[in-house]
Amino acid sequence: MDDETTIGQMNADAEKFYDDRGWNHDPKDLAISTAIESAELLEIFRFRSGEEVKELLKDPEFSKSLRDEISDVALNLLGLAHACGIDMSEAFTQKMRENVKRYPAKPE
Q1: pLDDT at position 4
Q2: For the CA atoms of 29, 30, 32, 35, what is the dihedral angle to 10 degrees?
Q3: Residue 48 pLDDT exceeds 90
Q4: Which of 44, 62, 68, 76 could form a disulfide with 56 if both were Cys (CB 3.0 to 4.6 A apart)?
């Protein structure tokens, strides 16, 4: 589905979700919500080794919890970007260009 759904479609879904509920589009509140949801995502990994997480990824219930928290973070990031007038595709592409320069690939 990643190859079929655009960021623009995700933005539209996020905006409709917020609008249908009359939720605030304030950047400060969305930044706080993003941090809170990110903490919930981190909690899934707390006190677990990398190996434990790899095993847990085989568990549908764990995978669903992880997917849900990642989606909550994405929803808030999309809302935050929109509220700030940031085009996520453009911002991501530009940042990746900067990262390539800042962190060159290791020679093979």
Answers
A1: 87
A2: 170
A3: yes
A4: 62
58 close to 51: Cβ distance less than 8 angstroms: no
What does the alpha-carbon distance between residue 96 and residue 49 come to, in Å, rounded to a whole number?
Answer: 29
| Stretch 67-77: mean pLDDT | 96
This prediction's pTM: 0.87
Q: Work out the pLDDT band at 2, boundaries 50, 70, 90.
A: confident
Cα 108 from Cα 89, distance rounded (Å): 30
Q: How far is Cα 53 from Cα 65, in angstroms, rounded to an integer? A: 12
d(C-alpha 79, C-alpha 24), whole Å:
10
Q: Give Cα separations from 62 to 53, 54, 56, 67 (angstroms).
A: 9, 11, 6, 9
